[in-house]
Design brief:
Strand order of the largest sheet: 1-2
Number of helices: 10
Shape: globular
Radius of gyration: 19 Å
Number of domains: 1
Mean pLDDT: 93
Order of helices and strands: EHHEHHHHHHHH
Largest sheet: 2 strands, parallel
CATH topology: Ferritin
Distance between the termini: 60 Å
Structural class: mainly alpha
CATH architecture: Up-down Bundle
Low-confidence stretches: none
Helix content: 55-70%
Length: about 270
Amino acid sequence: MDSLFERTFACLMASSLDEKMALLSRLQEDWSNDRLRLKPTDTVVRVPDPGRPEKPELVPPRKLPKRRLGSREGHAALMHAIAHIEFNAVNLALDAVYRFQDMPRDYYFEWLGVACEEAYHFQIVREHLNQLGYEYGDFPAHNGLWLTTYETDHDPLVRMAMVPRTLEARGLDVTPGMMKKLRAIGDRRGVEILKILLRDEVGHVAVGTRWFRWLCAQRGLNPFTTFQAIVDEYFHGNLAGPFNYEARREAGFSEEEIEWLKSIEAGMFRAE
C-alpha cells in the first residue's frame, strides 16, 4: 500500500499541468477508498520551488506590467493572474499535506479536498482564459504565495496563520471588486466563475482557521494574540483593507479578530 505522503510529494513536484491534475485525481480517489497509508516518510524535503510548467515567467510583483482591463489583453491578463493564484493554491494545499506528517487524519482529508477544489478552480479559469484566446503561461506572474509557503514550512501553526488565514483570506477581500470590474465589461462567465471561487475560498480559509485554532489549543496558546504575533513577524509589508468582514466571519474569524481588522482599516483612512 502506498504512502499518502509519498504520493502527495510526487503530485506536488509534477511540472506538467495535465500530469499534476491526473496525479491529484488518482490521489484523491485512492485516499477516499482507503488505499493509502498514513506512514511518515523518512525525511521531509524542503521545496524551494514546486513542480510547475516552464511558463509563466516569474518576476517580482513590481515588474508585472499594468494593463487596462477594458482592453482584450488586459481582460486576459486579469484572468491569467487569477489562474496563477489557483494553480499556486493547488501546490499550497498539497504541501500542507506533505509537509506536516503528524497531524490527525481529518487534517489530510480536508487539505486534499482543498487541493481538488483549487484544481477545479484552475481548470475553469484556464478554460475561460482559452475562450479569450490565451493560455496559462502567456503572461508573466509573481511567486509571492509560494515564497510565504516556503518560509512557513517549519511549523503548521505558522503556516495556517499565514497562508490560508492571511494571504488566501485576501482573496475574500478583493474578489467582489474583481467581479464588479468584470460585470462592467460584460464578462458574465467571468463573474460566475468568481462567484464559485469566492464561495469555495470561504471554506478553504475556514479549514485553515479550524486547524490554526486546533494547534493553538494543543499548545495552550491564545488564538487572537498568537495570530497577531505571527502576522507581525511573517507578513511582508502592511496588512491593509478594505476587508470583506462578512466573508471572513463565514470563514471563522472571531469578532475579536474582526474588530482588530476594523481598527487597521480605520487607521488607514486616518492616515489618508
